[in-house]
Amino acid sequence: MRLGISRPVDAMDGPYARRWWALGVLCISLLIIVMANTSLTVAAPDMVQSLGLGSSDLQWVIDGYTVPYAALMLILGAVGDKYSRRGALVLGLLVFAGASVAGSLVDSAAGVIASRAAMGVGAAMIMPATLSLLAATFPRAERAKAITIWTATAGLAIAVGPLVAGALLEDHGWASTFLINVPIALLGAVGALFLVPPSKAENVEKIDYIGGLLSVIWVGSLIYMIIEGPHFGWGAKAITAAVVAGVGFVCFVLWELRHPRPVLDVRRFAQRAFAGSTLAVALFFLAVFGAFYYLTQHLQFVLGYSPLDTGVRMLPLAGAVFVGGALTALLTPRFGMKITVALGMTVGTVAIALLTRVDASSSYDDFVLPLIILGLAIGLSLSPCTNAIMGSFPESQLGVGGAVNSTSIELGGSLGIAILGTVLAKTYSSNLGDAAAKAAAAGGPKLPEKALTAAQDSVGAGLYVAKEVGKQVTAGAAPKVGPEKAAALGAQQAQTVVEAVHKAFSDAVAHTSVVGAVVLGIGTVVVALLLPRKSAQPQPATAERSEDRESEKV
């Protein structure tokens, strides 16, 4: 007796009967790898206190996951196509679970970074496998609907990650945010064996490992440069990574153009639907991840919400993603993906633009509408793009198609956090410096230079400095005016610094949102020009796909 499902779908009289249950397994698998990043933004403060992480350590705890995740997806997607897509999913889930256990047990920055990197390797197996298995399991008539649900799950994970992490941190330490992955990953692995049909492409004779290696080099170097340069300065490491990424990219393209069976046929980017969809996904996640990066900070540090409260207040975005997905299922067949995607990106631009109104007096009510609109935009835009990307690949390369889509998400998200995060940090620092200078010029108390420099590092550091300044004022004044008056003076001075930090950060959020809206707005125009009209959109290569389907084991 064989474990799980082994009967090929092609041998069945009709569509696989339990395909919607299989989709549930794929969505659970997707959920945890997206949540692994969004939940960490909430757990980061506790990790800093427990492990004594510096800003550089914390940055690499977050991004140590991203580098292997983005770099390895293309080659691992190709390996899954050749050997076993379901096997890649199960193995990835087990690696992810094991790395999560390791991450919960370590007590050093190096250990957490290594565990996060191992989680990234597991995620690089899981992500392309979810899309390739989805496309292999569902008939073409139902594929768009299934992809819409898959996309909505990704949007849900963006909001649910902070909620789950916040709930765990109420009574447990940061390690619990790693351990929560374990039962979900094991559930996904068991569900895959019993609910997801096996799938592989039989007509793949040989994998283009050299092309795969070149993709690892240039994508990995590019992601490293995106992380290193803005956060730690454009020194030798960042410049070297930029050179390696550029040379690696050129070598990759030249090799793929000459190879008879490339790991990725780069000529596909000459197809307007494919190029436009890939660009749209990258640009959208640039804006979404960038906005999410500073919104969660604003809710916690300026509005004072706990991690759990922050997660709860991100839920309107998740609900709106499902509404947007329902709308795109109605609009895309009628108007075509060009109209739907352009509409979604325009709506997303409006959502980011609304955040330019944020100031120190803004309450949560000022964020609800942008969150809802942004969720609608995600639901409207991403599933048609993902469907177009997957539809550009034959059945024998579905894993590669899923890898291209997922790599676009990671590249866009990394760029968003790097670009918008850098704008945010520099604007905040400049605003706080200007505020301190104006206060001193007006005869107010002057913040010591060392304290000001520390406060300019981040909004969290600024609030910590405010607390320490208050303590110092209290201690210094107590012998002169008595403990009660000294405490009042200390609290007043601390509050003055807190208000300056809040204003500096709120104004930085508004300024950064201008940049994000401009980038997404320009990108919307470019994507709208690239995407073909409904009547001009290419149809699937029926003969090629039929041939591939016959030669595939599903």
Characterise this structure.
- 80% of the residues lie in helices and 1% in strands.
- The chain is mainly α and 554 residues long.
- The protein has three domains: 9-207 and 263-428 and 506-553, Up-down Bundle (Growth Hormone, Chain: A); 208-262; 429-505, no CATH class.
- It has a two-stranded antiparallel ribbon.
- The longest helix has 48 residues, at 483-530.
- The chain is globular.
Which descriptors would you attach to this protein?
Growth Hormone, Chain: A; 3 domains; two-stranded antiparallel sheet; 80% helix; globular
Query: Which stretches are low in confidence, meaning pLDDT under 50 for 5 or more residues running?
Result: 538-554
Q: What's the structural domain tally?
A: 3
DSSP strand count:
2
CATH class of the largest domain: Mainly Alpha
Task: Indicate the proportion of strand residues.
Answer: under 5%
Silhouette: globular
Q: Write the CATH homologous superfamily of the largest domain.
A: MFS general substrate transporter like domains
